[in-house]
Specification:
Largest sheet: none
Shape: elongated
Number of helices: 9
Order of helices and strands: HHHHHHHHH
Strand content: under 5%
Structural class: mainly alpha
Radius of gyration: 18 Å
Number of strands: 0
Length: 190
């Protein structure tokens, strides 16, 4: 059966509701029934449009990140990283961190969620980051054989995970910019 096309506004409302529910109750307690009730839509419509809860959740997360890393090109790696980080304010970072904390446990318990996250969110982000880094190599800012290149995604994810654990405070723009300037760029020889 063909999927009926939702308007971008309606799709955005649905995604916002999913993310709100995710923050409120967590992944395991989030049900298609709850999403249907919150959004005044039928469960059948949700399943027809998204197929499964993991797909709906991950597409809502991706919708929340409208900018692709590969689209950012300021002419320098430092400029690119700063441009990426300036696109999100501290309030949104706090919300995103809360979402990721809520999902981190669920990912281990739900292989479908883990696979959807990798395919729809992680791999496109890593591809965009690779393009951003490849441009820096092409410009001569980073040596192509720099061993730290393959660890940039790990360093970025580590910054998010470690701040809460080590300092018991949320990641914010100032922290991430300082982290990029103090850790990532020096490791790349920039």
């Amino acid at each position: 059966m063909a999927r009926t096309r939702l308007t971008p506004e309606r799709e955005g409302e649905l995604y916002d509701a999913v993310l709100d529910l995710l923050r409120e109750v967590g992944y395991d307690a989030l049900t298609m029934d709850a999403v249907a009730a919150r959004t005044r839509s039928s469960k059948a419509t949700l399943y027809r449009q998204w197929g499964s809860k993991p797909e709906l959740v991950v597409k809502a997360l991706r919708h929340n990140k409208p900018v692709s890393l590969s689209e950012i090109d300021t002419g320098s790696l430092k400029g690119d990283f700063h441009a990426v980080l300036s696109r999100t304010d501290d309030c949104q970072m706090e919300k995103d961190s809360a979402l990721m904390r809520g999902l981190s446990h669920a990912v281990h318990e739900n292989p479908d969620l883990h696979q959807a996250l990798r395919e729809l969110l992680v791999e496109p982000e890593i591809t965009g980051l690779d393009q951003l880094l490849r441009r820096a190599v092409d410009r001569g800012e980073v040596r192509p054989d720099n061993p730290a290149l393959k660890y940039v995604p790990h360093m970025l994810i580590g910054a998010f995970a470690a701040r809460q654990l080590v300092e018991d405070c949320s990641v914010d723009q100032a922290f991430l910019i300082d982290y990029v300037d103090s850790v990532i760029l020096p490791s790349l020889g920039v």
